[in-house]
TrEMBL record:
It holds the Pfam family HTH_31. SMART domains: HTH_XRE (SM00530). GO terms for molecular function: DNA binding. Signal peptide: none annotated. This is Transcriptional regulator. It comes from Streptomyces carminius. Gene3D superfamilies: lambda repressor-like DNA-binding domains.
Length: 276
């Protein structure tokens, strides 16, 4: 006798509602979990855990479900809401503004910014930050981070400017193979139609943004806001004086950083120095 399906709790949040809607559509079409797994290319066990809201759906699943069930974007909309639930309130505000930005300018002093991390680098970073975390928790955080990157792959992505301290390139996460793949991705982003990436070498010395990370978000209409982040906290700054101070500090760093061409060469030299 087959086990009775677990009760669902769609009223607990967007992720729970996503799972409940998925089961409802699956039962409406008389499709088993095995059958749906073949259609959407996600394992039966993973789909079962998504239905019961134990894990976040992978980024590719919402579109696949909307196509399979002809639901006109319902699962894509639920997924966007579910992703925001993972993050604290202020970070959700940052994500909302990030999605509305036409220009994102970032400085990172220690860690590759989340918008351009590889999946394995993100996994290694989250594991280092919380080595006692269960793999399900790490997997959920990685999925959420990868979902943010869809912003840069849309039909009209924002322009993206990055200044990375040399420490970002030399501080390894996950071992040489993980770092080599991450550095290769950064080298590709140094100059594209939508991205500019520059390296700030150690020889530059001290500067106003040492000790944290910064994101300047320019919205439609020219409004600018700032997101500052330390080890475990982030602060959204919207007053004009604070934004102007960070704007000047960022512009000074950009003037002192290597050109995109020299930055690509610098990144490749760091890759070559990694052990095989």
């Amino acid at each position: 006798m087959p086990a009775r399906p677990r009760d669902l709790t769609p009223d607990r949040g967007a992720r729970h509602l996503f799972g409940a809607k998925m089961r409802a559509q699956r039962e409406r079409t008389s499709m088993s979990l095995e059958g749906l797994a073949d259609v959407v290319n996600v394992s039966r066990s993973h789909l079962s855990r998504i239905e019961t809201a134990e894990v976040m759906p992978p980024p590719s699943l919402p579109t696949a479900l909307d196509m399979a069930f002809e639901t006109d974007g319902i699962f894509a909309e639920l997924y966007r809401l579910a992703c925001r639930e993972i993050h604290p309130d202020q970070f959700r505000r940052r994500m909302t503004l990030e999605a509305q930005s036409r220009l994102i300018e970032e400085y990172a002093g220690q860690i590759v910014p989340g918008l351009v991390q590889t999946e394995e680098y993100a996994r290694a970073q989250f594991t280092a930050a919380n080595p006692k975390a269960a793999w399900e928790e790490i997997d959920e955080l990685v999925t959420a981070r990868m979902s943010r990157q869809a912003l840069l792959r849309g039909a009209s992505p924002p322009d993206h400017s990055l200044i990375l301290d040399e420490a970002v390139l030399r501080r390894g996460f996950g071992g040489p193979a993980v770092m080599r793949a991450q550095l290769a991705r950064l080298a590709e982003l140094t100059l594209t139609p939508a991205t500019v990436l520059q390296v700030l070498p150690f020889e530059h010395g001290g500067h106003a943004l040492v000790g944290g990370s910064l994101a300047l978000l320019t919205l439609d209409g020219g409004t600018q806001v700032v997101w500052e982040e330390s080890i475990t906290t982030g602060t959204l700054l919207e007053d004009m004086e604070s934004v102007a101070d960070r704007r000047r500090a960022y512009d000074l760093l950009r003037a002192c950083a290597l050109s995109p061409r020299d930055s690509a060469a610098f990144i490749r030299s760091v890759m070559e120095a990694l052990p095989t």
